[in-house]
TrEMBL record:
Protein name: Uncharacterized protein
Domain of life assignment: Bacteria
Length: 713
């Protein structure tokens, strides 16, 4: 078969890959601190909502709707993650939003109880401003000339056109009425519709602009320019009455029973519908998004120092702000790689492993409700933790979004001694005289290294090398280096007092106690290529402790420059350049539990009063840093036994795809989405070559990260 038609197909596919995949902008640059605030989710500017049991929003950089269970503290993604969505709203067991998956803006309904998604409008419509109350959904629709309000009964599946002016917008609904803003008279007025009577009525058609109505029961609250005030219209009495009286601007009101909220000069205000006084409950809010109230809870938005819109939740009963999100809680045990940060988020209910994507600036809870995780680690491909409930090591495949147990009941993994590098997990099996084991998380292959006979003082893995420290006798220990490539064990130093050893690029570093006149803990490193031990620094005063290595950098604890010996601080030293890093955290940083991994340092910091996870990259990210020893062949494919799979975007780079074509018969190659899941679908290469639309239809069903090229052996 000639390459020309193949090249034509690939050219079109690569164009789609470029448009869809793109190159995400890094959320942080080298040397810049990033504060990870997962307890206040970063959201898109498309709206959010809260009800008795749930809150909904669309996370920044995502397209699925986040459904948050307020009682359980868990998140669920609903709707697909390919099409743009807006205006998520929730009431009872239903969520609604507008969705562009069919080209227009359709209204979608999600039934929480039955886990069912329903398309409400047809592709001939363009819905917006969707709202829900009980069994009723309302939205603005432009299927006819102009815009009108439509009402949908979930129980009967009946749709009703509420307005006919062609100038209606911003509907709000209660179990008995629909209210909206209408410009039929030249200016904005408030109208309402009696659902039982199927009749439209005027509410406030006085001079000036009456805008942004919200309705609860039979009371409509809205903005009026008459002194920049809020007014209420009682359907029962048929009268409008001014609710507020001060001179400040008032926007985006929302109402629940007798309690209402609104924005005023970037402050969030609270009031009683029957009283003129109001009170400020929050400041520095993002007033362009309507705050929402249900019961004692108020959901609103703020912008952070990076310009991200973040959700906040205010408890009216406790009179305080509380965290929201399935990953809200106190952070601890952080770890990092080039692209990801993981940490534990602990609340009163549970501990959750949170995965933060540095490129997207988004956070995801990756453990189940019944998990009891400790000490999470991360590479650019996997996250790993020890689960106390199952007494097993557990791994999360970041690419596939799957959780799997690494160990079963036949072994007893140490809950303290394990390390992760790329796809390789180094761990200790306590059932077999503390045997060191390396598990390839991509292939599940295990490699037995050696039996230690007792717990190590520390261990580490980096590329083809493993290091560990074993205590010989009291205060004396040996640092070992194991070369996995040639299966050779080397004693680097013996009979010394050693605290810890770690591996970086071509070196092992440790802290060693040197006795004598200037007794202290000093850093030494072993040059793997030269087989030589060297001091890390040229001074011997003060104590340098707890070294951690990644790339050419060493992070350690130091008191050399402190006025008091007990006052320690952290340093970052470049072994290759024999100098301190030029990139550092800010002076006001209060570092706790620091870890170094990939190209970054992560830590817990309480400089703002409460603990947050911070991270800083000290170097640029490496390309495909964690793809070594993961079962890939020379072209980056992952061997699954009967077949090899290649990430779609990686296969399009250079001549990789042509190399695959040279290696396999054409009828053995296919394009696959969501491999290994219930949603897996495929199109053969020959079918795609004959009809490219088959391939494009398949690609339309998934993100680029979920698409693979599969070649059968």
């Amino acid at each position: 078969m000639k390459r020309k038609p193949i090249q034509g197909l690939l050219a079109a596919v690569m164009l789609v890959g470029t448009l869809w995949g793109g190159t995400p902008a890094l959320a942080s640059s080298v040397g810049t601190e990033v504060k990870i605030n997962s307890g206040q989710p970063a959201v898109s500017k498309t709206g959010f909502d809260i009800s008795n049991n749930y809150a909904v929003w669309i996370a920044e950089g995502e397209k699925a709707v986040t459904l948050y269970d307020l009682k359980k503290g868990t998140e669920t993604k609903i709707g697909d993650n390919k099409s743009s969505k807006a205006n998520p709203k929730v009431d009872g067991n239903y969520v609604v939003w507008t969705d562009s998956r069919h080209g227009n803006s359709d209204v979608y309904l999600y039934d929480i109880s039955n886990d069912e998604e329903i398309r409400i409008t047809s592709k001939s419509t363009a819905g917006s401003d969707v709202e829900i109350a009980g069994k009723y959904i309302v939205w603005t629709d432009n299927r006819h000339s102009g815009t009108d309000i439509y009402l949908y009964n979930i129980n009967t599946e009946e749709e009703t056109r509420v307005s006919t002016s062609g100038k209606a917008s911003k509907p709000s609904v209660s179990p008995n009425y629909v209210a909206w803003e209408d410009r039929r008279n030249g200016n904005s007025d408030i109208f309402y519709y009696d659902i039982a009577e199927e009749t439209e009525y005027e509410a406030d058609v006085s001079s000036g602009q009456q805008v942004n109505p919200v309705i609860d029961d039979d009371v409509i609250l809205y903005e009026s320019p008459r002194g920049e005030q809020l007014y209420k219209f009682s359907i029962d009495s048929g009268r409008a009455k001014k609710v507020t009286s001060d001179s400040s601007a008032k926007t985006t009101p929302h109402l629940y029973e007798d309690t209402y909220i609104f924005a005023s000069n970037n402050s969030l205000m609270l009031g009683d519908i029957d009283k003129s006084s109001t009170e400020r409950i929050a400041t520095r809010i993002y007033s362009k998004l309507q705050p929402r109230i249900y019961g004692d809870m108020v959901l609103f938005a703020r912008t952070d120092s990076e310009g991200k819109v973040r959700l906040s939740l205010y408890d009216l009963d406790e009179e305080e702000e509380i965290e929201i999100g399935g990953i809200a809680g106190e952070p601890s045990s952080p770890d990092g790689s080039d692209r990801y940060v993981v940490y534990l988020s602990t609340s009163k209910r549970t501990s959750t492993v949170v995965l933060y994507d540095v490129e997207k600036g988004s956070s995801t809870a990756i453990t189940d409700e019944d998990a009891d995780p400790i000490r999470p680690l991360v590479s650019d491909r996997f996250a790993v933790w020890y689960d106390k409930s199952s007494k097993a090591l557990v791994a999360y495949d970041i690419r596939k979004g799957k959780v799997k147990k690494v160990t079963d009941k036949s072994v007893k993994p140490s809950r303290e001694y394990y390390e992760l590098d790329g796809n390789n997990l180094l761990w200790v099996n306590e059932d077999r005289r503390n045997e060191l084991v390396v598990t390839n998380l991509s292939t599940d292959e295990e490699e037995d290294i050696t039996r230690l006979g007792k717990d190590p003082l520390s261990l580490d893995i980096y590329g083809d090398y493993i290091t560990w420290v074993l205590e010989d006798n009291r205060d004396k220990a040996t640092v070992y280096l194991y070369d996995r490539d040639i299966n050779r064990e080397t004693k680097i130093v013996s009979g010394v007092q050693v605290e810890k050893a770690s591996i970086g690029d071509n070196f092992v570093v440790w802290s060693e106690y040197t006795s004598g006149r200037d007794a202290s803990w000093d850093l030494f490193y072993y040059d793997i290529k030269r087989g030589k031990v060297n001091p890390v620094t040229r001074w011997n005063n003060g104590d340098q402790l707890d070294p951690q290595a990644s790339r050419s950098m060493v992070l350690y604890y130091d008191n050399r420059l402190s006025p008091k010996p007990k006052d320690f601080y952290y340093e970052l030293y470049d072994i290759d350049k024999d100098s301190f890093s030029k990139h550092y955290w800010k002076d006001e940083a209060k570092m706790d539990e620091p870890r170094i991994g990939g190209n970054r340092v992560v830590w817990i910091d309480e400089r703002d009063g409460d603990p947050y996870v911070y991270t800083m990259a000290f170097a640029s990210a490496r390309e495909d840093d964690d793809d070594d020893d993961d079962g890939d062949d020379d072209n980056g494919g992952i061997d699954h036994g009967d077949y090899v799979e290649y990430p779609f975007l990686a296969a399009l780079e250079g001549d990789v795809f042509f190399d695959i074509l040279d290696q396999f018969d054409y009828d053995q190659i296919e394009f696959v989405v969501f491999p290994g899941t219930k949603k897996e679908k495929s199109v053969s290469f020959l079918a795609a070559l004959d009809d490219a639309d088959l391939l494009f239809d398949l690609l339309d069903e998934a993100d680029m990260s979920d698409i693979f090229v599969r070649a059968y052996k």
